[in-house]
Amino acid sequence: MTRTHIGDLKEKIGQEVMICGWVDVRRDHGKLIFIDLRDASGKVQMVALPNHAEAHTATSAVRSEWVLEVTGKVNERPSRMINVDEPNGTVEIEILGIKVLNEANTPPFDVRSDGKEIGEESRLTHRYLDLRRPRMQKNIRNRSKATKFIRDEFTKRGFVEIETPLLSATTPEGSRDYVVPSRLDKGKFYSLPQSPQQYKQLLMVAGFEKYFQIARCMRDEDTRGDRQPEFTQLDMEMSFVAREEVMQVNEEILINLVQTLYPEKKIQEIPFPRISYKEAMEKYGVDKPDLRKDKEDPNLLAFEWVIDWPFFEKDEESGGWTFSHNPFSAPQPEHMTSLLAKKDIPNILTTQYDIVMNGNEIGGGSIRNHQPEALKAVFQIMGYDDERIERNFGHMLEALSAGAPPHGGIAWGFDRLMMLLENEPNIREVIAFAKTGEGRDLMMHAPSELDSKRLKELGISLTKGKS
Ligand code: ASP
């Protein structure tokens, strides 16, 4: 007999079927033993009757989270037994035979609740169990739907999905890189990308014109609230565009995503309002104001674009200038002369646009400097000497000298977007295998020590004690 998915049982009334899944709960009433069996498609109530003696005995032995293969008859429930709250509430399986595919230890916590009452350390340590709970199943499945939707939307607009390397060189995105030692080239290190920024620009130089990627980014930041050392961006870039066109296509896809996958949500204002950084600070005192008219309504989404940001800000440590968002951004066209002349620095505005939803920054991007002199001027303003510019960005300057089209793009913080759409309090609830706030993977025990043989192979010696 081939397996029937539990979600399809309603079409099999009166038939004998074989179903597989996990014991959600078992209720022993002596003569009658009930088991709710769960698979990826749903849940169904099964009953073992004393007249099927063998099946009845087998059923009495099973426990929560055991994995079973059950043969049984699909019966319609009498009307007084119908459970209107369950998708399979009109049917019941009469158990004819049970095969235990695997037993399970008593789970360390209840996998049927929403999990909010359980300590997060325990949830992350046993994540494979935690992910069984309906809330996490929903979040991860909806995330998959959103990813597919985004892929389809960009693909149908002519964007090409391109993977970029994870083992790479350092990228300045305002954070620290994670580094990976090279065994073959002892003493040298790869950096894990903080974003595909440089690669996507190089893809524009290469003539792809429209690129996107669901990209993993890694940033070695100090523990800060709701951050993960690795996170996912929807990253895109396009050529021969001004700021307006990049904002337009992203706005359109965001609206489609919400309206298609979250029809219960209401977007407060379309087209998304725009607000300058200056106005945001003056009116709301923050650079990502929450513009919702009703903050009690979990289904109200207020998007806005924040534009006209200062390009440079003072670096607190060095006292010199640093970029406020992205060193690869272009200034607004009327500020290009100041940039090239390295004059009037605090007043240079960047083409940066941030997209904000309900007071959360969910993405940001800009038009880039596609002329090498302009990119070089940015680094000079930041106080880099020619040798450092050449060493770190020589490849970019060379590429921009190879016939680089004007281009620009954006990246969405995909985890944060999913968190907000799922009404979750933090991004760990929408990431299958999340790390703790301190960056630890409690399940896989990472980070962990390397044995001395591996260290030697890598040419690494550790200093004793903690620094
Ligand atoms: N690379 C930028 C970031 O990670 C996004 C962009 O400008 O496209 O924030």
From TrEMBL:
A molecular-function term among this protein's GO annotations: ATP binding
Gene3D superfamilies xref list: Bira Bifunctional Protein, Domain 2, GAD-like domain, Nucleic acid-binding proteins
Marked site positions, Important for tRNA non-discrimination: H29
Residue ranges annotated for the Aminoacyl-transfer RNA synthetases class-II family profile domain, each copy included: 143-447
BP terms from Gene Ontology: aspartyl-tRNA aminoacylation
Region annotated Aspartate, chain positions: 197-200
Subcellular location as annotated: Cytoplasm
Enzyme kind, highest EC tier: ligase
Classification via InterPro entries: Aa-tRNA-synt_II, aa-tRNA-synth_II, aa-tRNA-synth_II/BPL/LPL, Asp-tRNA-ligase_1, Asp-tRNA-ligase_1_N, Asp/Asn-tRNA-synth_IIb, AspRS_core, GAD-like_sf
SUPFAM superfamilies according to UniProt: Class II aaRS and biotin synthetases (SSF55681), Nucleic acid-binding proteins (SSF50249)
The reaction(s) this protein catalyses: tRNA(Asx) + L-aspartate + ATP = L-aspartyl-tRNA(Asx) + AMP + diphosphate
A Pfam family it matches: tRNA-synt_2
GO cellular component: cytoplasm
Binding site for ATP: R219, D220, E221, Q228, E361, G413, F414, D415, R416
EC number: 6.1.1.23
Function: Aspartyl-tRNA synthetase with relaxed tRNA specificity since it is able to aspartylate not only its cognate tRNA(Asp) but also tRNA(Asn). Reaction proceeds in two steps: L-aspartate is first activated by ATP to form Asp-AMP and then transferred to the acceptor end of tRNA(Asp/Asn).
HAMAP family referenced in this protein's UniProt entry, alphabetically: Asp_tRNA_synth_type1
Family per similarity comment: Belongs to the class-II aminoacyl-tRNA synthetase family. Type 1 subfamily.
Subunit architecture: Homodimer.
Entry protein name: Aspartate--tRNA(Asp/Asn) ligase
Organism: Candidatus Taylorbacteria bacterium RIFCSPHIGHO2_01_FULL_46_22b
